[in-house]
């Protein structure tokens, strides 16, 4: 049998059209100020030049494809940079943002449709628009949508999001959970803790909301992919299982121990540690881990296949994570 293509499910595109749309609008300056406070000045001083240096990879499909060739990656699942979420936006602006983001991402991927598959956006701050937004993304030929770990005043366990989970399950759409920012705010404003600690925390909190609230009980067919290996949750799931069994308040919302739900979630492999990756494969199952690089940002890996190989997985598991699982999920074969 031929081996499946190598598929990277965590790769981003930058959409200048979206930023031009929101530039100068009421609320944008306040949102940027909040982002700056959360990250801190030292992080901003590094991040700005880093992103500018990577603009060709983020915006030019030809440059992206050449980089994929160098990495040995056949297919990327391309999602908008999380900086395009703009959860501060009012209803009218939010609709313009997701429509423009969907269309621009689809156009970027159209340069090589067999190698570049895309995801759109939905405005989590306006739950009444989520189904329509998901349908718009699918209508553009995208495979689903990317979401953050929360929206202002709402966690992913909020009942207002039930129509989104139902529609995504019914259509088979992918939902890629990728946080942007952390509500620990200025506690993480030095040493890039806003990312190194903040992102794994946000992943763990968001997934816990989906598990403990029963969302995954009600929507067993939901195709949910968690970035950054699900953050801290998979390696600390024993504490969640203990709470579920020891406390009535913890066990009230979901039918089974929390650890059992890890086998219903897909996780990318971007954990930066071979031992952690082996543990992720153990607790979630080798059929639930997908190759991810965070292309082309500096918190990703330039050699996702090499990082996977370093985990020393069994040959069948290595090839499942390298591309077999994602090929089936994305229907790339």
Order of helices and strands: EHHHHHEHEEHEEEHEHHHEHEHEHH
Give the assembly state of these chains: single chain
Query: What is the helix fraction of residues, given as a range?
Result: 40-55%
As a whole number of angstroms, the C-alpha radius of gyration is: 19 Å
- Give the overall form: globular
Beta-strand residue percentage: 5-15%
The first-to-last residue Cα distance is: 12 Å
CATH class call: Alpha Beta
The secondary structure category is: alpha/beta
InterPro entries: ACMSD (IPR032465), Amidohydro-rel (IPR006680), Metal_Hydrolase (IPR032466)
Keywords: Lyase
Organism: Streptomyces tricolor
Pfam families: Amidohydro_2 (PF04909)
SSE order and pairing:
Layout (H helix, E strand, L loop, with lengths): L6 E7 L2 H7 L5 H12 L1 H13 L1 H5 L1 H11 L3 E6 L10 H19 L6 E3 L1 E2 L8 H10 L4 E4 L2 E2 L2 E2 L6 H10 L2 E4 L15 H4 L1 H15 L2 H4 L4 E4 L10 H10 L19 E3 L5 H11 L4 E2 L13 H6 L5 H16 L3
Parallel strand pairs: 1-2, 2-3, 4-5, 5-8, 8-9, 9-10, 10-11
Antiparallel strand pairs: 6-7
Quick structural gist:
Keywords: Lyase. The chain is α/β, with parallel strands linked by helices and 333 residues long. Helix content is 46%, strand content 12%.
